[in-house]
What does this fold into?
Amino acid sequence: LGSIFGSQFRFLTWGEAHGPAVGVVIEGCPAGLAFDEAFLKSELARDVPDTDIGTTRREPNKAEILSGVFEGITLGTPICIVIRNEDICSRRYEIIRTCPRPGHADYTYRARYSHVDWRGGSRASGRECICRVVAGAVAKMLLRPCGITVCSRITSLAGLPVATCADYEAAKKRVLEIGGTGDSSGGVIEVTAAGVPAGVGSPIFDKLDARLGLAMMSIGGVAAFEMGSGTAFAAMTGAEANDPFTMDGGAVRTTTNNCGGVQGGISNGMEIRFTITVKPTPSIAVPQQSVNLHTKEPVVLETQGRFDHNFTPRVLAVVEAMTAATLVDLLIEGGFIHPVRFEESRLPTARLSRNPIS
Amino acid sequence: LGSIFGSQFRFLTWGEAHGPAVGVVIEGCPAGLAFDEAFLKSELARDVPDTDIGTTRREPNKAEILSGVFEGITLGTPICIVIRNEDICSRRYEIIRTCPRPGHADYTYRARYSHVDWRGGSRASGRECICRVVAGAVAKMLLRPCGITVCSRITSLAGLPVATCADYEAAKKRVLEIGGTGDSSGGVIEVTAAGVPAGVGSPIFDKLDARLGLAMMSIGGVAAFEMGSGTAFAAMTGAEANDPFTMDGGAVRTTTNNCGGVQGGISNGMEIRFTITVKPTPSIAVPQQSVNLHTKEPVVLETQGRFDHNFTPRVLAVVEAMTAATLVDLLIEGGFIHPVRFEESRLPTARLSRNPIS
Amino acid sequence: LGSIFGSQFRFLTWGEAHGPAVGVVIEGCPAGLAFDEAFLKSELARDVPDTDIGTTRREPNKAEILSGVFEGITLGTPICIVIRNEDICSRRYEIIRTCPRPGHADYTYRARYSHVDWRGGSRASGRECICRVVAGAVAKMLLRPCGITVCSRITSLAGLPVATCADYEAAKKRVLEIGGTGDSSGGVIEVTAAGVPAGVGSPIFDKLDARLGLAMMSIGGVAAFEMGSGTAFAAMTGAEANDPFTMDGGAVRTTTNNCGGVQGGISNGMEIRFTITVKPTPSIAVPQQSVNLHTKEPVVLETQGRFDHNFTPRVLAVVEAMTAATLVDLLIEGGFIHPVRFEESRLPTARLSRNPIS
Amino acid sequence: LGSIFGSQFRFLTWGEAHGPAVGVVIEGCPAGLAFDEAFLKSELARDVPDTDIGTTRREPNKAEILSGVFEGITLGTPICIVIRNEDICSRRYEIIRTCPRPGHADYTYRARYSHVDWRGGSRASGRECICRVVAGAVAKMLLRPCGITVCSRITSLAGLPVATCADYEAAKKRVLEIGGTGDSSGGVIEVTAAGVPAGVGSPIFDKLDARLGLAMMSIGGVAAFEMGSGTAFAAMTGAEANDPFTMDGGAVRTTTNNCGGVQGGISNGMEIRFTITVKPTPSIAVPQQSVNLHTKEPVVLETQGRFDHNFTPRVLAVVEAMTAATLVDLLIEGGFIHPVRFEESRLPTARLSRNPIS
It folds into this structure.
């Protein structure tokens, strides 16, 4: 199990990185949504936002829609979208058959399944993420008419803070320096969602922040999730941490937003805000210690080929996709979006007017 | 929805803080487990580990087992355990009927449900956590014969690092100082699980670390989840971050454990390790800005009564409970524990011998 | 697993027949519903509709509401209702410890769980059904403002057809005759639901008729489920079986209703209609062949005590409860009932006006 | 929702009858199973077992395996299998855009989704069933090493009983006679599963017979489900209906099998046996009354083309597939098959030796 995400709006990803294809089936997308193929293409194209520090695998990522859409409109039935794997070179992975790469899932997949597809990281590859981006694109198509937008930005790269364009150039330089030595680096991403009405999220175990935590931690290479002020809460007092309430144009708002827009697992109508930490790329050209699982002898792995120096930029599209999918799931769960027929006329389009108190 | 946790070993908590009772129903506990009532009692007693900084609510927390256990042995049927609410004083919560407390879920529950039980935080109260501790106690009963132990410790309190007993005394002094002003403070907890075999966790969306992230973020007042080295990964290089493999007594191990024992969402046989950040107690005696939801006028809330100065110590039992429940769920999912009959003779009792490669 | 029914409106039953209590937790009942305690009591009182052929166990069936209702209105949180077991005499079940009763689940529970509560049928007892009746009562409270009613009636008893009151008296006489010999008899029940709008039911695997089939077959002693004309379809031709469409007062209707109101798993706005077959009571005073599981010797069981001569009448309340719960589940799933807040003003109150075409 | 079947072994079908393709994704098939492609082909070829009374749509039904299998062995990851739709002629369905066919789901899909793919029955077509056959073939691959076989046979056709080959010829003649008038007929199928160990099935709501009922009633055109002696129980007495226990070669058995091998929802080690009723083909050449949904005028539909005179024979493969999938799901749920790695050496291979008592 494990390949299905979500409850009301749910999707199942399938496919090995070096198998014939990868794909996703989305279930629970209401009927009547205009399917924006151009937008789907643009989201798929985001897969490599910065070629300097990105991947060398250059696949067309051409998505074929096999079901669930008729005459450009969703049917409410499962949407299956397939992406063929075309730029495959499995030879360089031969060594993994016996020697697991540090920082990768080679060893743990073998521990779990015994029989594995050792080529290209299989399901644990970044390749699987393209399926999430597809599902996220559909989720964003649903969020747009609701007036909800999901944004992400890098706030730290290779250990350097990124607040301005100049910061980003400096950080990119550092990424390339480290990459030049065959090593890699990580980063930090902040995600925000604007326009989310108050009342989204189900108490106790399906809290909005808990579900976002699950969504983010399920992305390969994500090591930490911080809601709102996150780890900084540890050194704050209650008076500093609590977000005071105020009235603003007839609506209840908070004057600060330390909680990241979620209280008791339910959105309060403010901006949803959280942060994730991205590990350095595990594939590096630096020699690394491993073991040969057959001979039980130690080995030194020297991985050839070019890899992402830092995959933080590539993760942006995935992070947004998982955020959008989580929001749509809970918007349907909470009755904000009709589960079967997408009716724009019944959607909440302005956050203030949706405010349950004003 | 939202009140059910887990898939194979799942539990449902119910009950309002100031209603007649709270309780939990555990489904998926295999038959044949000796139910250790004394242990359950000792876990319930952990609810207030340090009276200096803890709560004043002193309930007996007497658990009544209504089903699922016969002659001291589990039946494999749902285990329902009820805890009556006895020390209830709802008057001081009257103000919440109209004025939501900053840092609490008063406003968001109202936004979601319209009709709410305004007394004592209802489901969003720490009272709900006692149900999790009960479920976690049963989970620990299952983990014990598997040779798996879950531990937690405070690593930071009120902004001060806690590594030694002296540190703890210093931090506690700071907690009391802050508490003396009517304000509150937070902390950091590290959790470890020893003895978890390699191969636990389901790839993609049910990754062990993702499920732990969900479990932790579902606890009220938890603001951040860090797996292994967590946020520190952002400034590490791949060579620093990757955990090299080595052979140790015929078993595969890693020489470092930055990943916290999980790679690609599956345990690697090393210690599971993660960290959570606990917010400062939202209930404070400091005057706070709020609004009257009926008159829409601003109000200043001055909460009376005594509260936890810092509820980090109280969270320990809950954090362990949710960790244990998550592990049992995935141990059953992965075939390590039989789903119907608990058979000690078929359990993996030593981590090394379970190593799938050696 | 197995003790949770439903998805959007779901309930979990727990409790052994001779344990301290049985109970149910309902999750997914929207907030804002006026909880009709008197109606709940009246449904519980239906447990023995005809004392002549019913059970001798006379428990008060007093339900205690422990959560989810505040000031007489549902909160949207889990509703836990407990019923204590009071009229317990376990001695007569001693024989079951070693010798399974034919027609009962004694042997199969032992096969599955090894450790069992042998007293009174445990979870396989009719006692568990009282929990279903409680959940069904809440479901009916939700259906009533929607203008949906669920009815059931006996159409055959002890092999005799029941269409009139005279039929029923004749059949009852036959039931008593058979019962007088220590033997038992079964029956047939027809269930109808009026007022269900067109469009309820999810295609493929969550078809309305499939979910009703699951619901009915999950009731102990139910041996067959027939949708609409059921087994009679086998000898019909397509022209006889198909229900022609017509317009009636601006609404689409069918001139016959062989399909029982469901086409392709989705309701068509006509009356929902299906039939179930109830087995004869397995507990009989006639000597029966069994085996002693310890000695592996054959034994003849001569069960003492009084039992229902025919439990078809007792099943009526359970059948309606499961039907109501299934309908509410799919009404929420289909967006007919708001999942979080019960808003009467937004409910479809007249079937014709809801017709999607007219 | 609605397109996912099962819990531990679950599959999702997708695709419209006249869209680009249909397909299935199977999740929860353990790793290590030798994937028998030849068997899959033979199961797909069963789609039209008797050309005399079968369909005229002659598609190759060529299945492409896109994931989850590597070097002929399952990986434990999702298995996606795609079948292209090639023999499509949608013109004859144009009339359905406005006039729903009696006995079909045209009207109800429109009631639910508003926007529909009107061509060829879309998801409600028999075409969807080919995906179930694929999933069932994989389930059968898992059952075979467990010594479990699923069989089905027609026991009635066009209202005539079928016990012998001569019966079948007579019934077929009747089918063709009815078909010759443009009308259609139905039938009855008996299904048996041999080799199922005692202890399979989860009490209360996931009873083996309840899950089989769900599985069968989810098949388009199935109108009734009877477990064991089914509707005949209504006229039996308890002494006739109860199956007495006996010892047979050290194993517990019953001397009759009225219950169809399931007691209290759990298998008792005897043959699983149930019966389903298949409706007459709804597509007939006889003129039928319908309405034009736009003009609201009555219309008479005269469907052209050739259709199955009786699709009972075609349903056999689907019925077996759903039975096999249900059994595998519950075998994993009950711990009889390892959920992650398929280990033949640990499988129960002889029913008697698995007997939990002997």
About this structure: The two ends of chain A are 44 Å apart (CA to CA). Chain A touches chain C through ten residues (CB under 8 Å). The longest helix of chain A spans residues 312-333.
